[in-house]
Amino acid sequence: MKDGVNGVALGVFIFFFLAVTVIGFMAARWRKAENEASLDEWGLGGRSFGTWVTWFLLGGDLYTAYTFVAVPAAIYAAGAAGFFAVPYTILVYPLIFTFLPRLWSVSHKHGYVTTSDFVRGRFGSKGLSLAVAITGILATMPYIALQLVGIQAVLDVMGVGGESGNWFVKDLPLLIAFAVLAAYTYSSGLRAPALIAFVKDGLIYLVIAVAIIYIPIKLGGFDAIFSAAQHKFATPNPKTGQPTGAIAPGHAGQWTYATLALGSALALFMYPHSITATLSSRSRNVIRRNTTILPLYSLMLGLLALLGFMAIAAGVKVSNGQLAIPQLFEDMFPDWFAGVAFAAIGIGALVPAAIMSIAAANLFTRNIYKDFIKPDASPAQEAKVSKLVSLVVKVGALVFVLTMDKTVAINFQLLGGIWILQTFPALVGGLFTRWFHRWALLAGWAVGMVYGTLAAYGVASPTQKHFGGSSKEIPGIGEIGYIGLTAFVMNVVVTVVLTFVLRAVKAPDGIDETSPADYTADAGDPGVAVELPPATAGSAH
Amino acid sequence: MPESTEVKRPVITPLRVVIALCLIAPFVAMLWVSSYAKTDPALGGIPFFYWYQMLWVLISTALTMIAYKLWQHDQRSRTTAPSTSDSSKGGASK
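ok -> structure tokens follow
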């Protein structure tokens, strides 16, 4: 780390940050509807986004600052094992193609804002819907916290805050960034991250394109980069005596690699923020069309992952792996371009943090406040509660990051991934069939949650006694695999078995308010536009 | 789409099988890790393991695009051809 503050880089960073702030506040007036006081407007941008806005929004949402820091950091630390992010994002798109259009249709027809809304409508079970809502909120909170960790990493490398002794001076930049984020999310809702995502993705693509050409040239080509990495990974770890990593996964690592890729792919679209961005799109086809253009982000992620090897070849030495990539940028790029790269990561944290807080707030409002506290809440009241909760969620994440060790946030995010995957049977199962019994789904969910949590707790690593990783021996198979996927399989088995039992004893089914045609309805179909809340119908340009 | 008018159309058609194959292929390729867990042959200095998976980003995109086009074709042929709309609509879902 260079001594002191990198003034040029910081100046460029602040410039972009201010630009984005202005955009965030102006977003409130973009595609404004006549009646903005509803959750459809604030929390889903009027459900009016077309192919390109959705592309930027989803890309900005799923490929977070933490992704940009953590994926290459994993490669930097262990090599091939960290590359599972690429097959993971490859597998996501065929999955989306298959089930999200159905979710979009049924949500549009019935005015659902969250996945829990759908689960309640489909299975007529407030308990199951509450379980899905709480899982979503629990999984999202640490994810927001990690976005802050991403901003902190960038600020650290620029020499702002970090090592300063005074906690207030140290955390002030982060506090300012967060106050601004909270203010424009409150006033503009989902429209703010949608607009800012354009800036974020533009910057990210620019930085990756430059990095992937410029840095290898400076380091003597990919041959030199990979032989340096080979050399580093072959050196045994002094503590364990094992090689520290590998360029291609050995036999033992292959199950882990495949199960992590599959489990993460199944989990990604269970996250509330992914669903929020999806439901804000204008039509079914916008989603399907997006599955054919979103993989551009996967390609970018693959290139970005290679930066981890470049950090090794460039001799970047950091005690905290999360700093490897920001440090690589500072070492390799001229100051002004390092500033652009840092701005890309910083803004890359703001977009998902905003969407995640909106998504968590929507869940609270629709599935806890309206279902259990105030059933007769008007749309305007719902929007108001949601706005306030989005603030609470963000403050909570901030307190989390400032008061606890970073590893706590990372542990919880790891758990969050395992947890959120347990809502898959209720949600995706529900989209295709009503055969599953609501109580069986609830029991399966509980089994998955408990097993996943206990299993993750029991994983030790050289540095941590608990939550040392997300993989563990799969019972009955004996290979090491992703805990989330194992828990998911248990969840499905319990659900299926109990459904047979409950059907046999004729346990009462909930009332299904949806009909088969709802799952294929598209915007403009007779009946779809009419049944939307007036605010949305009026804003459909 | 084959003969359609009066007969209730089957839910599984050759076209839909092709769509399903397009969507399943990436899973087979990516989860079969041992098929690509090696370093040779390298491409421009990048080991096989890495460029092969990035190549699959492009392949799976192409497959999804084909699936999308075929799906549109499937939907159009179902909505334009005269049929008892209810049954075909329910089945048109995937």
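Confidence is low (pLDDT under 50) at residues 529-541 of chain A.
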